[in-house]
Amino acid sequence: MPAADAAKPVAKSVTEQLDDLFAPWNRTDEPGLVVGVVKDGALIYRRGLGMASLETAVANTPKTRMRIGSTSKHFTCLLALLLAEEGKLDLDAPIRTYVPELTGPGGEPTLRQLVQHRGGSRCYLDLGFVGHGMSVPPRGAALAAQVRQSGRNFAPGTAMIYNNGGYHLVSIAIERVGGAPFEEQLKTRLFDPVGMPDTASVPSDHDITPGIATMHTPGRGGRWRRGLFPSEEVRGEGAIVSTIDDMLRWMAHLRTRDLFGSAPTWAALTELPVYADGSLGVYGLGLIVNEYRGLRTVQHSGGVMGGTSQMLTLPDDGLDVIVMANGGRDANPVRLAEQVVDIVLADRVGAETPTIPVEDFTPMLGDWWSPKTGMVYSLLDEKGVLKLGIAKALGGSPLVRAEDGRLISPAGGIGEIALEPVGERLRIRFGGETADYQRLVEDAADQAAFAAAAEGSYRSPDAGATATIEAQDDRLALRVSNGFGEVRSVLEAMGPTLALAKPRSSAPGFQAAISLIVEEGAPVGFRLDTPRTRNLEFRRV
Fold it and tell me: Which CATH number is 66-120+155-344 given?
């Protein structure tokens, strides 16, 4: 062999490259993940890495069961479609047809709007994060929270905000018309026919589930804590536990579609909505249809307390990927699944979607607020990439440049958001509504003015909660309680009638814009806006 050839590095196989990708979680002192990959019907990768339980020193294996979180959602949609085939359910009927307790605006959206996150109703989980944080309310609280709503995020069909509560309501409708508990219908109509013996819908993390990995969240001092979801009644919004093998069988059936369901039913699962502003959504019925590096993808990720997942299939390329993590440090199943695509389809993938360099918009960085909408948006510099933040929630989403020059946050968990600088303002369009946003600049005088106007006690019937704004430890604090728990936040005034709420230290809390409601020159309450809960009013008592 010539010396030059001997020195040439030998190309690594696909398996070796995948081993390198997942090597950081191949350890015995931290939680990890499980992963499965199928190409053209053949299993090419199947691994368990890291620990399923640090408490009992049990390792993850390919047979470990894990929570898949919101990846559960398309199972719920398919079950609803099967009942629609039988004439038992109408996806285009208002939800109050099946849940008549919803006498307020929450009864107006159709089932289809709810599962596409276009219903506009408020979500019981997000209301819970505001009212009781990580405390666990009793069963029945989820429906009660949504029944009492007299307001909503937006009118049905006019926008899109990710909403777990809509799926909870559709699960109740399925149970009422299907003649059996929701969880049993999933098993008998979907899991059993496909051959998924290790898959089940488990509403509570407090129930002992054999073979399931412990969900882990990082604690103080390098310690770990159990990830326990703050609800004992999670249903179609994200309660499924499964394994690599079961999920790969399911993804194979997403291709063949030969065990149940008509062709129109299966087609409806990936039909995309057209939003009020004419833009095409990417969220079908529990599945997101999009592209990655020029290749068509169908996918849905999931997140629980201490765990994340991603189910990604490329229908035109014969590739299925499932990644489920139980708290592995820095494990991002969505990005890891994309990296699997990069490796397995190296000769097929196109160029990555270009990001926008932050230096082109340095003068626009910072926080922006509109008195019309009450929302706060932020233009962020994240490692040199321009991103959009909403209501000061942690992190941001990458922006892309549209053909007309506007900046776009593509539709995903929240519908498309379009931005364009207009003089000293930032014009933002969301859900068919356009508003001009003004820059926020923190001022010491604002803190005093806001405190003087805002201190006091409040009540919100929609939140089912009381609130107090008061000075604590030289900081202005917001305390909210709905009787199941209490949430404390620090308020940072950004104007005489506007403050930003954020959690105190590492305690559970929420990020929100707090806008005072002024009537006849006097503050009579405040409005709370988070990325997923809008227009939530608290009035003085």
Answer: 3.40.710.10
